[in-house]
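#struct-pred
JK: can someone run the complex with NAI? inputs below
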Amino acid sequence: MIYDLMVIGGGPAGYVAAERAGHAGLSVLLIEKRALGGVCLNEGCVPSKTFLNSAKMFEHAKHGEAYGVTCENPKLDHAKVVERKNKVVNMLVSGVKAQMRANKVTVVEDEAFIEGRTAEGFCVKTSKETYCSKRLLICTGSSAVVPPIEGVAEGIKDGFVLTNREILDLTEVPKQLVIVGGGVIGLEMASYFNIAGSEVTVVEMLDKIAGPTDAEISAILKKNYEKQGVHFKLSAKVTKVTQNSVVFEKDGKTEEVPADKVLLSIGRRANIKGYGLENLGVLTDRGGIVTDCYGRTNVAEVYATGDVNGRSMLAHTAYRESEVAVNHILGKKDVMRYQAIPAVIYSNPEVGSVGETEATAKEKGREIKIGKVSMNFSGRYVAENEGGDGICKVIVDKATDALIGCHMIGSYASEIIVSAGIMIENEMRVSDIKEIVFPHPTVSEIIREAIFSL
Ligand code: NAI
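RT: done, structure tokens with the ligand placed:
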């Protein structure tokens, strides 16, 4: 049989594409070599959220006095947290499997290798069979970057150096955890393991944490983490990993921090090697597959969505890119836009950002107005956050008076930020936003407050 669409990789990009294409009546084959759900469901977004929820509950139990709640001797049982994480992951992976069945997608759990294009279409072989399809969608995702730093490769072999994959299966909380890279993964894991009892040190090359996040929000986040006991070494470049420490250079000096385990979270790289991509002549640039606004590669009928195109490396971007690609295959009008994709750090407190920051707007030469308020302008925030220091910032284009960015730190930021994304996507102006009714009392009202502060 010649399939209408063959999808390689069953993560958020692959399974959503397969689901949508199957639903539309295409014959779809999905090949996945590890586990359906990909990194997001099995060793990324979802498992880390189960960890962080347990940490949040533990923190509430420990620090309830200010709210009139005392709880004697609360404990966090890490082994149980991991057990629950596995239960949640299994449940969601089963859900994806059920969706594949419901949409008549054929799933092959094996490693795919692209042989090339023949008269039969694109031919992909697995350990048992060769499959052919009229179109190919590459959704092979990304892997943790492992730098050629002395001691890292050996550390990984020994289980001393971990990536996002292994850290989520640790059965014991390390006494001293050193995290290399103060980006999203590093910060989320720092939050959990600090609360679970590790002495956590984050070593970050830049002079700020949380990479592209608004500088003021990044500083507030760092202050909160430090208050909770996390140590930071900024402007610090890791040069060596020994068997029990991490060595780094800072201000021209060599320093060392002891470690029982090391988490490597210095970014991710698109998976473009080892599965025959070169047999198609697909163009890559800076490590990712080059795609257009429909997810098409330079090779006709070959698409690439999700982390593998290196554009945004977020599960929700992958969903949307895949929907656009499937719509393009179906001849439906749709196009991928990247200007209003929310980014969230599920830290404690949470960070939500969408659109331009002050820095990126200025880089683009846009004249902007900034509205900024304390999260304490929200009654619900005050009721729920004793001593909270969150803020919300809105960035408005002076020429059009439209909202082009929103950045916040505080409770529910992950859930609220989507509303700002909708406003940006729809190019809403300040006057339009002022007419929106937000439920009261909610923390989401903070956007309204920030807009009215302009
Ligand atoms: P990242 O790009 O967010 O952060 C990596 C950090 O490591 C950067 O701040 C960088 O300056 C630093 N770094 C690089 N080399 C270093 C060195 N030698 N020594 C010290 N610091 C060094 O990458 P991360 O945290 O690994 O996350 C990877 C991807 O996963 C991201 O693209 C993110 O989009 C995605 N992700 C998203 C999540 C979310 O949306 N909540 C959660 C987890 C991951």
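RT: quick notes.
The mean pLDDT is 97.
The pocket of NAI is lined by residues 44, 147, 180-186, 188, 203-206, 211, 237-238, 265-268, 313-314, 344-346 (CB under 6 Å).
JK: thanks, will look after standup
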